[in-house]
Write a structure and sequence with these properties.
Layout lengths: L1 E3 L2 H9 L4 E4 L6 H13 L1 E6 L2 H14 L3 E6 L13 H11 L4 E7 L11 H24 L6 E4 L5 H4 L7 E2 L7
Length: 179
Amino acid sequence: GVTCSKVSEAEIFAQAGIRDILIAHTPVGPTRIDRITELCKSGDVIVTCDHYAQAEPLAAACRDKGVQCRVLVDINIGMNRTGITPGRDAIDLAQGITRLPGLQLVGIMGYEGHAMPLMDAEAKERLIRESLGVLEQSREQFLQAGLCCDIVSAGGTGSLSYAAQCPGVTELQSGGGIF
């Protein structure tokens, strides 16, 4: 599969025949949600969610169109830009998602982008490993709560070498890494 940032990118991949598509930035608004449900008709789309207010309208649209959309709970692992607080808040959100027909909880994701500006290689590695440790701990909490956590998605081009070594990460989001 592939990871993309927004719905318009996902549509391009879907038109090219790629079915497994992760949209890494939480889509908001009826137009984007409608476009996601259209993508779900022919592909295995995954979206991220860090608030229940995002999940409810997506679930309703999926029910209206007779499709199902896979969801990863976006965990804040230190970047403080997106993601729900790890622990109880993340568990509560995941449990809420599991009760919404039209959505299927499949795991978690986090992004350690806050470590990318660090020039000191040791400091960068330490911060990435700490951040991914939060994600691994979140996975354990999900599993202990009986929640699906088949996917643990992380990494970016700048952290690929570290994320690939993390035993808890099952999926890498390092699109530019091949270059």
